[in-house]
Amino acid sequence: MSHTIGMVGLGRMGGNMSRRIARAGLDVIAWDRAAGARAGLAGETRVRTVETLDALVHQLQAPRIVWLMLPAGAPTEEALGQLRPLLATGDAVVDGANAWYRDSMRRAQELAARGVHLVDAGVSGGVWGLVNGYGLMVGGAIDAVRHVEPFLRVLAPAPERGWLHCGGSGAGHFAKMVHNGIEYGLMQAYAEGLALLRAKSDLHLDVAKIADSWRHGTVIRSWLLDLTAEILAEDADLGAIAPFVADSGEGRWTAIESIELGVPTPVMTIALMERFASQGNDDFANRLLARLRQSFGGHAVARNSNPEK
Fold first, then answer.
1. Contact at 8 Å (CB) between 255 and 266?
2. Which residues are tagged catalytic?
3. Measured between alpha carbons, how far is residue 264 from residues 39, 166, 189 in Å?
4. Is pLDDT of 306 > 70?
5. CA gap 267, 186 in Å, rounded
């Protein structure tokens, strides 16, 4: 059983995951192409940073475990391309990105041709994971998952809770994809409900206090609601925040899978559409709707102060 892991990618997630592993008494050899990210772990007991990916692999004892905590897509693909010739039979790579599960299945086959295991790990917990632990949804061969289990147990909120071997290759990332689709829907529901409360100005509702009260005893309490209440307690108007909500790949993949499988997911899909709308992607449609109302009903049209948009 290995007691040392290589961590590639030391951003907000990878850096804190390295700290949590080390503070549990296991060793981490860590690398990031950014010197500043490596410097951020200076002085962390049981974490040793290296300056190259080659050095990371060569300082790990076989059979090695290398955990990638990189953005999905090209950065992960590039890192795997660099790792592939450096690894040997029996080694394992854990991909902790929010990767498309079909990519994970393909990569598992490619690495298996060299005798290397791929474990796809959906990781949830964000910047709070260092203290609270991470939810881990894992896919891959049983032997590969057993190989990385010591690290799953210390990253999770408790050794026996908060991590799950979901199935074969791709299963972990598929579960994380659906998890994030649900997250979209929950966030949208909280945002809409609190916006409705705020709009009822004649009742002089204290939206921040209502959100905080919902945290205790109600059926809609959750960690997302805890975060919402904390945000509103700091700034109930959010006037400095632009109404732009980015979307990552998981929401799109969830909607596509629901169509391909014929499983209705209207809440998650509409939440994704609302994110598109916040990004200005409904501007033309709304302009056309306003013009149509003017055309058939004579309704006034508000003029755009910036006609280039």
1. no
2. 176, 183
3. 47, 23, 18
4. no
5. 9
